[in-house]
Amino acid sequence: MSHQKKAVHPLDDLIRTDRIPHIWCPGCGIGTVFSSTLIAMKESGIDLTKTVMVSGIGCSGRGAGYVNLDSFHTTHGRAIPFATGLKLANPELNVIVFSGDGDIFAIGGNHFIHAARRNVDLTIICVNNFNYGMTGGQVAATTPYNAKTTTTPSGNPERPFNLPMLSYASGATYISRWTILHARDISDSIQEALLKRGFSFIEVLAPCPINYGRRNKEKPFDTLKLYQENTIIKNKAHPFELDIDFERGVVLGKFLDINRPTWTDMYNKTCRPKDFME
Amino acid sequence: MKPAVLSGVHFITGDVACAEGALAAGCRFFGAYPITPATEIAEHIAGRLPEVGGTFIQMEDEIAAIASILGASSAGVKSMTATSGPGFSLMMENIGLAACTEIPCVIVDVQRAGPSTGLPTQGAQGDMMQARWGSHGDYKIIALSPISPQEIFYQTILAFNLSETYRVPVLIMTDEIIGHLSERVVIPDESEIKLVSRPRAKGRKDRFLPFEPGPNGVAPMAIAGEGYNIHVTGLTHNEKGYPDMTVECQKQMMARLTGKIQNNLDDIIKTEGYMLDDAEIIIISYGVSARTCHTAVDEARSQGIKAGLFRLITVWPFPEDQICRLAERAKALITVEINLGQIHLEVERCVKDKVPTYLVGHVGGTIITPERVIETIKEAT
Questions:
Q1: What is the DSSP string of B32-77?
Q2: Residue % of chain B over a pLDDT of 90
Q3: ipTM above 0.95?
Q4: What's the confidence (pLDDT) of residue A278?
Q5: Does a cis peptide bond (omega within 30 degrees of 0) precede residue A81?
Q6: Are B103 and A116 within 8 A, CB to CB?
Q7: Which of A12, A19, A132, B45 could bridge to B19 as Cys pair (CB 3.0-4.6 Å)?
Q8: Can you tell me whether residue A203 is helix, strand or coil?
Q9: Domain B8-192 falls in which CATH fold?
Q10: Cβ–Cβ < 8 Å for A73, A65
Q11: Residue B1 — very low, low, confident or very high, per pLDDT cuts 50/70/90?
Q12: What is the pLDDT of residues B185-235, one digit of tens each?
């Protein structure tokens, strides 16, 4: 028995295995998004020495703590401006922001829209689990109408963000949305985003059975069934169609993939002296 | 490329001198957000950075401005931002992140009268305690206070050098009056400017411990993209940089963060004495207020009063030992500052009722006149 070889996971070299077990709950979707991200990094062929992951605060914000690359776990909402500094100071770096919906779109919403407008060459991966999981399940900017959370005990009275539409309006050059059932599509999208120069946004719907599902009478398996049965893949869908409403059906796919000059391109062209770049 | 060091004699404001000092110090990234009376620093450096190979960006708010400089510094580039009271308040959380993760950076606070929006175009020194304690938790930073445009040029270089040496945020606590004052500023030859860069990671990449302190208590720093696969977190972390939620680790980390400042006070603290040798009435002041005190000391001396000035160039860490020694021999200590007594609290703490202490302060908006200082000197005599 002692001769049995220790099992090695094919992504182990990209994981800080000495930090496992991770903090994510049973049934949580973040792990799937995380491993799809690592697969994308590997398969894209990018120089991993020059690849950096930046996270904010929250469950998804722990991503940076598990990836075996240069990784920065910053303050709540500020992953994007921190990542902007990294990228602008060294344009050779591939900079990935891995964080949650509360972090990127509530406390950090202002930074998201401005980084998209500037077309900073970043890959933003947002795990959207419809609530603040780390703090026990409070309402978020993405919580559906009427959903119960600890701070909306009678149901959420507010309209949630349509994140792809927000990205589109802000100036992102790559936008896609998947659920954790679409692991292959997530990886393909992230790979495209990594190889693309420009601000890329990938939203992944992920279950939070402990804090969100439990209060909304959604068993872990029910959530996955919704992902399978009440979604439709429609590439290039109009951003207006992308509100999340599982009763009407949620649209997934790659919605936008265009090119425009990045912040660094425009800065070099507009602000550097004419003879500087020669 | 244009020269980064504009050697020669200039007639410029404190804000412009600060920007030129940053360029001379090797600053190549500036994350900005406009605010009176600090805006001119950003305006000046916005034009200069791209011509010396640096990068300037105006971010969407002060929180983003400081976050961007922490990112840029993590990529190995000396980085700075500048602001005033309201923006300084917004920067506090990430000043704590910089202190906790030991990312070198320089933050300039061109102080105006507060609280809140206050008097945006009028000077004050009301952010001195905020500079020390503004972010949550125990931590230590370095704060400097310049007396003139000439000095702000040199202090900006010093700020970068200290920040790189100790991997700590360094705050330049200037004010609207120095910021907007035009004076003669001599920028020396590049060869005369001594620059310091952070200690860098060496050796085997798989064995590197990013928060293992070197001989002076400061850990060598790995730069993003060098292959050390470092993890940097604002959570309490061990020498490997990994989160460790134990009291033991918190003790070790805090000992390192505070120790690297506390054990190098002689190298960090800079002060200046004026007519101190035989002084019986000693004024303690800093920044623009120290200019007032120079005049007051001269006037007191002409009236036969043995007055002297002890000027804080470094305000934080506070020169406790020096102040305690002054308290041993002076008849009275007078703190002069444009606030209701912030540094005065520190002076009182050091004096421990050994001699009488006086405060000449006010709520901000104007400088303190020499007459008021002289009045108090006479009262104390």
A1: E---TTTHHHHHHHHHHGGGGT-EEEE-SSHHHHHHHHHHHHHTT-
A2: 99
A3: yes
A4: 57
A5: no
A6: no
A7: B45
A8: strand
A9: Rossmann fold (3.40.50)
A10: yes
A11: confident
A12: 999 999 999 999 999 999 999 999 999 999 999 999 999 999 999 999 999
Residue A64 sits in a domain whose CATH number is 3.40.50.970
A104: tokens are 């990127």
B114 near B75, Cβ under 8 Å?
A: no
User: Which amino acid is located at A63 in the chain?
Assistant: G
Nearest CB partner across the interface for A267, out of B55, B65, B79: B55
Same fold? B8-192, B270-380: yes
Beta strand extents in chain B (DSSP E only): 8-13, 29-32, 55-58, 79-83, 105-113, 119-123, 142-144, 169-175, 182-187, 231-233, 271-274, 281-286, 307-312, 314-316, 332-337, 357-361
* B205 shares contact with chain A (CB less than 8 Å): no
Long-range residue pairs from B302-305, CB within 8 A, at least 24 positions apart, any chain: B305/B280, B305/B281, B305/B377, B305/B378, B305/B381
- Asked if B243 has any chain A CB less than 8 Å from its own CB, the reply is yes
Tell me what the pLDDT averaged over chain B comes to: 97
> Is the CB of B68 inside 8 Å of chain A's CB atoms?
yes
Q: Is residue A15 part of a domain?
A: no
Phi, psi at B75, each rounded to 5° = -85, 5
Q: Which residues, including other chains, have CB under 8 Å from residue A135's CB and lie 6 or more apart?
A: none
DSSP string, A6-33: PP--TTGGGB-GGG-S-SPPTT-SHHHH
Indicate the residue of A68, A75, A81 with minimum beta-carbon distance to B234: A75
In the predicted model, residues of chain A with pLDDT beneath 50 are 1
> Given the structure tokens 């959207």, which residue do they identify?
A128
Give dist(CA B107, CA B143) in Å, integer: 9
- Please tell me what DSSP assigns to residue A49: G
CB contact under 8 A, B67 and A82: yes
Do residues B163 and B104 make contact, with C-beta atoms less than 8 angstroms apart? yes
Q: Does the domain formed by B270-380 have CATH 3.40.50.920?
A: yes
Q: Is the dihedral of CA A182, A183, A185, A190 positive or negative?
A: positive
Tell me the chain B residues in contact with residue A85 when contact means C-beta distances shorter than 8 Å.
29, 31, 67-75, 79
Q: What is the largest CA-CA distance in chain A?
A: 70
Min CA distance, B64 vs chain A (Å)?
Answer: 5
Contacts of A50 in chain B (CB under 8 A): 225
Q: Which residues are bridge partners to A100 per DSSP? A: A127
Give the residue numbers spanning the domain of A155. 27-260
